[in-house]
Amino acid sequence: MHVEEILSQYPWIKDEHQKLIISPDSDGLLCALLYLNYFDGEVVGFYDGKVMLVKDGISPKDCLFLDMDVFHSSFRSVGHHMVMLNKKRLPSNWDRYQNCLQVNNLRNFDKTNDFQRKYPLATIHFLLTILSHVKEISLSEEAVVPLLFSDGVWIVLFGYTENCLEWFDWLGITKEESILYPIFCGKKSFLEIMQDINDFLRQRDSLNAKGSFDFRTQTFIEKASRRTGDRLIISTSKGEPVNIEKKEDHLYDIYQEEVNRVTCFIELLAHSMGWNAKLDKWNFQNLKLYLFKKSSLDGKNRKLNLKNYNEVVENHCFSMAITSSTQLEYTIDENHLFDD
Fold this sequence. Notes:
Blueprint: H1 3-9, E1 19-22, H2 26-38, E2 42-47, E3 51-55, E4 64-66, E5 76-79, E6 100-102, H3 103-106, H4 111-114, H5 123-131, H6 144-149, H7 153-159, H8 161-171, H9 181-184, H10 190-205, E7 211-214, E8 219-222, E9 244-246, E10 252-254, H11 256-273, E11 287-291, E12 293-297, H12 306-313, E13 317-324, E14 327-332
Helix pairs in contact: 2-5
């Protein structure tokens, strides 16, 4: 990987004082902590592919989206999902990715020819590799756990070993000067790592959601949810807003119990990484709400083929990810909130 070329093509990746909109899971939270601790960033919003919440008075176009591949030339974003179907037959508006630092696109990897070679790690690993060339970034010995946990990397390593080793080589992870060398090439035994991850999972599970704040009725509904302790939940599986409290001035707050839950996980991540949680830099109140339509090409109604893919991509597509060899998940800006 030629880091200097990346920094030259996407110089904004190293800017100080950036306003951040993040995916509300462990990877997005870790990416935010990196910018808060080393580039004096501020988290002003969250986007999960269905719902976007952004601090009042701030335009999303002035923000950096982390762990999200935004298909819009006016937005800056960093993502790692597979998004290209066929490199030889690109959609007519493919240049909308020009401000998206997209790791699979950097290597010109597409689903048709390279799906088994797609990036297997998380956005935080990619960002650490790049930004450690800009600033001296420190990681604690315990950082191995959140960095293996994020996006299930600890499972992927042995499920897709050949692919992981290829990406290790491309990222330079096996070189001693790499910031990730101690993480993936350290001296801990498999058993020690398993025990550490198990402890982390138990701490994560202690933060599982005990219910949600219904957006329509504006009431809290008790219903325990397993394995939710590592994310902020702002929408249902159907794309409906959740844990969002209406205010009188057409703004919204994230429900306080949900805020309390996710900030506990943020503090856990920060402590494990050897960083500061900087909770004063996270905005959970006075937010504007943007709603999107999320759908998929999955073979049930429409197949993932070139015709259907191009039709989706060329029709107000805001973000997307090819999640399997037969499925594309995508978000449409059907209300034309962010037309050029």
